[in-house]
Amino acid sequence: MPTTLFVNACMRGAQSRTLELCREYLAAKQDVVEVDLSALRLVPFDGAAAGHRYDLQKAGRWDDPVFDLAKQFASADEIVVGAPYWDLSFPAALKTYIEHVSVCDITFHYTEQGQAEGICKAQTLTYITSCGGFVEGANFGYEYLCGIASMFGIPETRFVAAEGLDVVGMNVEDQMNKARSIIAKLNGR
Questions:
Q1: I need a surface site. Which of 101, 103, 115, 160 has the fewest CB within 10 A?
Q2: pLDDT at residue 137 in the model
Q3: Tell me, what DSSP letter sits at residue 19?
Q4: Angle CA(87)–CA(43)–CA(80) in degrees, nearest 5?
């Protein structure tokens, strides 16, 4: 059965409108595995931690827990990332997570010519977000995830957003319904 990996970067938990949209998208999926970044509380790699991980890689100690998230990511059939639109991209917890899953010889490797080549199983990465205003050409979070998907060998990226949710006078339900209609199309409904 295909596995959908849900990377939950909805830092406001149950109050998150992004999470609400993600749950609606995921309701059509059978086998969903969730990684809740708020609960996981990953820390960015410093020099010592990066060096330790590199030493483990060189020694072929792939059973070390430091590689668990990367292996989980690489083996998923579909990736769904839910993250609010914060500061022109997404919460820092998502960047830290990507740092943890970006592991040479698990999510990508280098060719003989020195080019990164993706080795993830997923065929799609779906990015779901919501924002108080409008993205208006500054969707750096999605652009970054498109680059990561390409590096990891994920051929298709898809974007769903509910925008303008904090604009005075905006009909929030209409904006959410626009995102829901995209979700329905992506789910073949």
A1: 115
A2: 82
A3: H
A4: 60
**Measured on CA atoms in the order 123, 147, 145, 109, is the torsion positive or negative?**
positive
Helix axes 68-75, 92-101, angle to 10 degrees: 90
The model's pTM: 0.94
- Pairing verdict, β 108-110 and 116-118: antiparallel
β-pairing verdict for 31-36 and 78-82: unpaired
128 contacts 81 by C-beta, under 8 angstroms: yes
Where are the strands (E) in the chain, listed by range? 3-8, 31-36, 78-82, 108-110, 116-118, 124-130, 156-162
* Exposure string over 141-161, b if 16+ CB within 10 A, otherwise e: bbebbbebbebbbbeebebbb
Q: What local confidence, expressed as pLDDT, does residue 102 receive?
A: 97
Spatial distance between the Cα atoms of 139 and 129, rounded to a whole number of angstroms: 10
Distance CA 25, CA 13 (A): 16
